[in-house]
From TrEMBL:
Keywords, comma-separated and alphabetical: TPR repeat
Keyword Membrane: no
Domain of life of the source: Bacteria
InterPro entries for this protein: TPR-like_helical_dom_sf, TPR_rpt
The TPR repeat ranges on this chain: 22-55, 153-186
The protein, known as: Tetratricopeptide repeat protein
Organism: Oceanobacillus caeni
Length: 332
């Protein structure tokens, strides 16, 4: 039997365990981010935020990681939370950048302009100016900027996106309906409302609303994709085909718009064209969309690539557990 001397006991008792603090986790997260190990960076940054939940720098850095992997909605939700508890100016540019990636260029311009108003010589001032040059939206198209309203809109958008991606249309419908009521000048919620109506069973009402929107703007990608799907689901292929043809000639810059076209082509059984569109999408930019995995997997299966279909489905179920409750494309 070993014996521990008093001297050794004192030595053991004097050891102070090292407990990492938020700065330690933050530094490790930044290091992983610079090495492009985004999953590891996110884990470290989440630990940093847990240690110091009121440190805006940590949440902003975590939002940048989300942006890098294409989780723009998650990034903006974090940044919006920061703005609600502090006036961390960098958030305005970071939100603008995420909106630009989502194709919401009007909102992007508002936040970029707000950033430059507050920090004309800030760290992101050159980036904000370049972003504004790229957007090129006429000033007269902008509504009066009310940040508080924009924050509220973002919360509604996040909630609607969550339910729509899970195809929980009955839950999405009242959220979108309220968003349309509160923000009548925003066009995208109107198209989302028609979509939620259609898949909630109110098909004729949804079709009529979307046709009215299409009449106002015949170039709207949201109208073209909705009408292509609506008519196809109604079995009216002769009416669906012109809209499918129209979107087949559209090649957007933003990944979310590319995904919208790819999903529409898949949902209307144009699998070969859909497959080409899915392949052109940077997966890292749309990993937060379960619809990417749902319909890319379906497309691969219908084109005789079951192994690729299974691989996509498994990855989708890992990232979006609700997919595992759905039937895979081979069971449909």
């Amino acid at each position: 039997m070993s014996h521990v001397t008093n001297k050794e006991k004192n030595k053991v008792n004097n050891i102070v365990p090292y407990i990492p603090d938020g700065d330690f986790y933050f530094t490790k997260g930044v290091e992983a981010f610079r090495n492009r190990k985004f999953d590891i960076a996110l884990k470290w940054m989440k630990k940093a935020v847990e240690q110091k939940p009121n440190e805006p720098l940590y949440q902003c850095q975590m939002s940048i990681i989300y942006t890098e992997i294409g989780a723009y909605h998650a990034a903006n939700q974090l940044l919006t939370n920061v703005l609600q508890s502090s006036d961390y100016i960098d958030c305005y540019y970071l939100i603008a950048n995420n909106y630009a990636h989502l194709g919401l260029l009007n909102d992007a311009k508002k936040y970029a302009t707000s950033y430059l108003d507050k920090e004309p010589n800030g760290d992101f001032s050159d980036d904000a100016k370049q972003l504004l040059e790229l957007i090129e939206i006429d000033d007269e198209e902008l509504d009066e900027f009310d940040l508080e309203d924009e924050d509220e809109l973002l919360i509604y958008q996040e909630t609607a996106f969550f339910y729509m991606e899970k195809m929980e249309w009955d839950k999405a419908l009242p959220v979108i309906e309220k968003m349309v009521e509160l923000f009548p000048n925003h066009e995208i919620p109107k198209h989302d409302y028609a979509r939620a109506l259609f898949f909630s069973g109110r098909r004729e009402e949804a079709l009529q609303k979307e046709l009215e929107l299409f009449e106002e703007d015949p170039t709207s990608l949201y109208s073209l994709t909705n009408l292509a799907i609506f008519y196809y689901e109604l079995g009216q292929n002769e009416k669906s085909d012109p809209f499918i043809q129209a979107i087949s000639n559209v090649y957007p810059i933003h990944e979310q718009q590319k995904l919208k076209i790819a999903v529409t082509l898949a949902r209307t059984a144009n699998f070969e064209e859909a497959y080409l569109r899915f392949r052109s999408i940077a997966k890292g930019k749309v990993k937060n969309h379960s619809s990417y995995y749902r319909w890319y997997s379906t497309t691969a299966y219908h084109l005789g690539e079951p192994s690729k279909s299974i691989e996509l489905w498994k990855e989708g179920c890992h990232l979006h557990p609700h997919l595992s409750k759905e039937k895979g494309p081979w069971n449909c």
